[in-house]
Amino acid sequence: METTVKTPGASSGKSKVNEAEAQLVQQVVLWLQRAAGLAHEDIGVVSPYAAQVELLKQKFLDASSSSAAPAASSSKQAAKGTAQSQGQGSASGGRAQGSMVAVMPAADQVQVASVDGFQGREKEVIVFSTVRSNAGGKIGFLRDPRRLNVAITRAKRLLVVVGNKATLAAGGCPHWTAWMEYLEHKGW
């Protein structure tokens, strides 16, 4: 699946983020769960940038909290019991009393990690967030063939790359060029 994200990646410290791409990654994961029937634990999300990884983790945490909040709102005591049964103490998680925060088991979370952090692990499906989206073809870490190799070989059944094709093509990296030519040759 190819998706072009034209919103420029914004700097966040020394790392990069792309909010529009993060939203698209979240939609892809939701589609994989609903339409394809994949479980959370079958899906991994990787990105070469730590700031993007943190943004994606926060988006998934916010989504799981908001989707579970109505169920948790019926009883503070039920939420507290759920949190304690998972060994996590208070359901408020350090937040003010009365706030409704759903505590989701770790197994229910989509695993999000940096490309380097995912090395040696596999998932049924990997969604790769490339982040970079700029007119100059600046692709940073994406130029490293080792990182590209790790990113695109973690999937057992399906790899979904979310990124800006024009930026990747303009980056002058022979590995990205060869990969995109292969995809075009296959009609993908």
Automatic annotation (TrEMBL):
Region (Disordered): 72-97
Cited Pfam families: AAA_12
InterPro entries in UniProt: DNA2/NAM7-like, DNA2/NAM7-like_C, P-loop_NTPase, SF1_C_Upf1
Keyword Manganese on entry: no
Molecular-function GO term, any one: helicase activity
Keywords: ATP-binding, Helicase, Hydrolase, Nucleotide-binding
Domain of life, source organism: Eukaryota
Domain DNA2/NAM7 helicase-like C-terminal: 11-165
SUPFAM superfamilies: P-loop containing nucleoside triphosphate hydrolases (SSF52540)
CDD domains: SF1_C_Upf1 (cd18808)
Ranges annotated as biased composition (Low complexity): 72-89
Name of the molecule in the record: IGHMBP2 family helicase
Species for this entry: Haematococcus lacustris (Green alga)
Classification of source organism: Eukaryota, Viridiplantae, Chlorophyta, core chlorophytes, Chlorophyceae
